[in-house]
Amino acid sequence: MHGPASPGWLLVALCAATGAYCLLRMRSSVEEQRRAAGGEALMGFGMAAMAVPSAVFTPPGWAWVVYTAVFGAAGLRALWAARDGAHHLHHLVGAAAMVYMAAAMAGSPGRHHGGAGIPLLTGALLLYFTVYVLVSGTRLIPVTAAATAPVAPRWGDRPELARACRLSMGIGMVAMLLTL
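The line above is the sequence of DUF5134 domain-containing protein; the predicted structure tokens follow.
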């Protein structure tokens, strides 16, 4: 994405770390968590790759077509999986946002929207991910634990870390959409 190098590298680090944790979550014993973690790892690493500052590396024009195809396929998979749960709809919106950003970058590498303002789709995605971040942030607020707490789950099965992972990617998506 286009923007200053320091925030760009912070975004790369955040998204890559999130993708790496999602890879750890793929070792979960719960099949649904493994499936969701795989899509989230793809999203994290894809966001990290797209966020590399253009002053450091400008991908060739065909790379944006690859991003579009990969996240288009991820979106179709999320659409198919949405039959089973609403969380997959969020994956569908995330994949669609990545396709949109890749297509926008392919059409205007090195340029901003200028004084035209925020396009309608960019604004709608910004609104969606801003609300998602706010709601996800409130879900991280601890609640009082029951007196008989179960045995601590493994790294890959900790729901609060999965929520923090999703929150991080939501924040990253907002940052990427702002620089589009």
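Note on the example: The first helix runs from residue 5 to 25. Confidence is low (pLDDT under 50) at residues 111-115.
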